[in-house]
Design a protein that fits this description.
Helices cover 31% and strands 27% of the residues. By secondary structure, the protein is of the alpha+beta class. Strands 1, 2, 3, 4, 5, 7 and 8 form a 7-stranded antiparallel sheet that branches. The relative contact order is 0.13.
């Protein structure tokens, strides 16, 4: 629902909160909003059942000329989540939302808090403080009801290697309280949907890594969940297996499933997510579309490798050409600069190097990596701190999938 109104019809965000918008209203995070993009200013307000009521003020040259009132429905809401394991603060006031029918990619290194967030939202962990709801249901107050609506696929395939693919899915169906006939029918449907029919009667130990991940994902869809949590679904897969998983996930999204996807790969979030939240040390440090995050790290970079005696000359040439500071990796004789214009800048660089009689050993464009994003946003590279060791020891003893008893 969209309603437009003159800016004068509103007062401050807190005034609007007092006029019936439950929950705190705060400005939209600006970590991925450059000054050149601030055509709109947004205030957020939401009730605890996941409804969103907020406003977007249209701004031209600093003057507010109108306000767009936006009403949305969030399938997943997390507010100021805190979780500690001894001296380790896995979550430190983490907040995020996932709009119904969309995909949120949660991007971060090992130990950033991704898995802990998923476990709390899937009712496998209880937060020390904060609030979380799925489909408007509080995950702490009514976990059993939440489990009836969600699917969860963790980092590692939770299937019995001694059983066949068919037997695994039938077993999961029975655990989800389907009757025998229903469990068998659902197993047949899922095996066909995930292109595993030919391998249905083979033991899981004969499956490839990609086949195991597809079967694990199929098991999380036994009950046709409204919300699906995928915790690093392509970890450990080869490029072919990763592409196959992307195709499967894309089909699920087209079917209307709301998805929260955690990943370490910017490329994966770019491929699958409508919006990306970057987290570090248990906090969301940036949120936006893939394009806005790429702008944070300066877009693509041009990398040129030359002979050692040409490094200084090449660095000076590229810096002047791109009007950006050249980063030199002395040991590799490699120079990198921000490549505004992408392939057009690559062509200009080749011409300039040829004119200067510099023959590069290697030249190409490099898309931003996870470390590039973190270096830009935090000033340090992504640190890997084990999150699972602590959380695994302290988590409750429920099964991996959300709605088992």
């Amino acid at each position: 629902m969209l309603i437009t109104a003159p800016a004068a019809a509103w007062e401050t965000p807190n005034d609007r909160a007092n006029n019936g918008m439950a929950g705190a209203i705060t400005p939209k995070p600006t970590a991925t909003r450059k000054a050149t993009e601030d055509r709109t200013a947004t205030s957020r307000g939401r009730s605890l059942n996941g409804d969103f009521i907020g406003s977007e003020a249209i701004v031209i040259t600093g003057e507010v000329i109108g306000v767009v009132i936006v009403s949305k429905k969030y399938a997943v809401v997390a507010e100021n989540l805190v979780k500690t394991y001894g001296a380790t603060r896995a979550l430190d006031g983490l907040s995020l939302e996932v709009e119904e029918g969309t995909v949120l990619g949660v991007l971060g290194p090992n130990g950033a808090g991704k898995t802990t967030t998923v476990r709390i939202l899937a009712t496998l962990l209880t937060p020390d403080s904060g609030h979380a709801s799925v489909a408007g249901i509080d995950v702490v107050k009514d976990p059993q009801k939440v489990r009836q609506l969600i699917g969860l696929s963790g980092q590692y395939a939770a299937v019995d290697e001694t059983l066949t693919g068919w037997d695994n899915l039938v077993m999961f169906g029975l655990l989800y309280h389907l009757n025998s006939k229903g469990a068998k029918e659902r197993a047949t449907q899922l095996l066909e949907q995930f292109s595993l029919t030919d391998a249905a009667r083979r033991p899981i130990k004969t499956y490839s890594g990609g086949m195991r991940r597809r079967l694990d994902l199929a098991a999380s869809l036994i009950i046709k969940p409204k919300v699906l949590f995928l915790d690093e679904p392509t970890t450990g897969l080869d490029p072919r297996g990763r592409l196959e998983m992307w195709e499967v996930i894309d089909e699920l999204v087209k079917g209307g499933v709301t998805l929260l996807l955690t990943t370490q790969y910017l490329e994966e979030a770019d491929q699958l997510a409508d919006e990306i939240a970057v987290i570090d040390h248990g906090k969301v440090i940036a949120r936006g579309t893939s394009d806005s995050l790429k702008k944070e790290v300066g877009g693509e970079r041009l990398e040129v490798t030359v002979e050692q005696i040409k490094v200084a000359e090449t660095a000076k040439l590229l810096s002047e050409l791109t009007q950006s500071k050249a980063h030199v990796e002395e040991g590799l004789h490699r120079i990198s600069v921000v490549a505004h214009g992408g392939s057009a800048m690559l062509i200009e660089a080749v011409r300039a190097l040829d004119a200067a009689q510099i023959s590069p050993l290697d030249i190409g464009l490099k898309r931003p990596s996870l470390d590039d994003v973190f270096m830009s946003l935090t000033g340090h590279v992504a640190e890997e701190i084990s999150e699972d060791a602590d959380s695994g020891a302290k988590s409750n003893k429920r099964g991996k999938r959300g709605n088992r008893k």
